[in-house]
Amino acid sequence: TDLIWRWNTLAAPIGNRPIGYISADVNNSGTESPMGDLIADAQLAHGRELDPRTSLALMNPGGVRAGLTYAAKGAEGDGVVTYAEGFTVQPFANTVNLQDFTGAQLVQVLKEQVSGANAAAPKILQPSAGLTYTLDLTKSGADRVVTDSIRLNGAPIDPSATYRVATNSFLAGGGDGFPTLAQGTGDLVGADDLTALEKYLTANSSATSPITPPKADRITVVQ
C-alpha cells in the first residue's frame, strides 16, 4: 500500500493535467458510442497529420474502456478532461497505424464485424466522421451490413480504389476477428492512441469552447 501511495503521489501531476474540455458526458454505450466515434475522429486526425491521404479510421469497441463524464471527479472543474481520465478510456498504449486497403477489402472488414469469428457476438467498429452505412440486424451473417449503403463522405465505396485507413495496432494485426485488417499494405506507425486523443482534444476544445460529443449517428441500425 505504501508503494502504491508513493507512485500515486508521483503520478498525480501528470494524471491531473487537463487535456481537453467537453460540453456533456461522452458515453460509451450502444452499438455505436459517442466515445468510440470521438476516438475514431482523433485517430483520423492523427492519421492525416502523418499522411494527408488518410481516408478514415476504425476503432474496436473493446478498446474503449470507459466514457468521459462532464462532472468533475476531482478539483479540475466540470467539463475538464484530465490525462488520467483519458488513460482510463484508453489504457493499452496501442499505436495508431496507417494501412492501404482496396474498397473491396474495406467492405469485407465491415462485414467481418458480423460474420466469421464475430457472427455470434458482433463487434461493431466505431467509425470516424464521413463513414456511414446501414446495419440490418434482422438479417444474418455478413448480410447484416448493407453493402450498397456504405458511403465515405457521401460517395459509394469504389471496390478497386485504394483507401488509407487508420486503426490501432491491435486491429492492424487482425485482432478481434478482423483478418482482413492484417492484409493492409504501406504500413506507417504513428503515436500511441492516447496521445492521438489528447492532441485532438487539445486542438479542438477549450474552456470557453468545449467539444460537443458526437451524435453516434454514423451507423443506421435496423432491428
Account of the protein in words:
- This protein is α+β, with helices and mostly antiparallel strands and 223 residues long.
- It contains six helices and eleven strands.
- It has helices at 2-15, 34-50, 83-89, 103-112, 169-172, 193-204, and strands at 18-21, 54-59, 80-82, 95-102, 126-127, 131-136, 145-152, 155-156, 162-168, 185-192, 219-222.
- The strands form three sheets. It has a five-stranded mixed sheet.
How would you summarize what this structure contains?
By secondary structure, this protein is α+β, with helices and mostly antiparallel strands. It has helices at residues 2-15, 34-50, 83-89, 103-112, 169-172, 193-204, and strands at 18-21, 54-59, 80-82, 95-102, 126-127, 131-136, 145-152, 155-156, 162-168, 185-192, 219-222. It is globular and about 55 Å long.
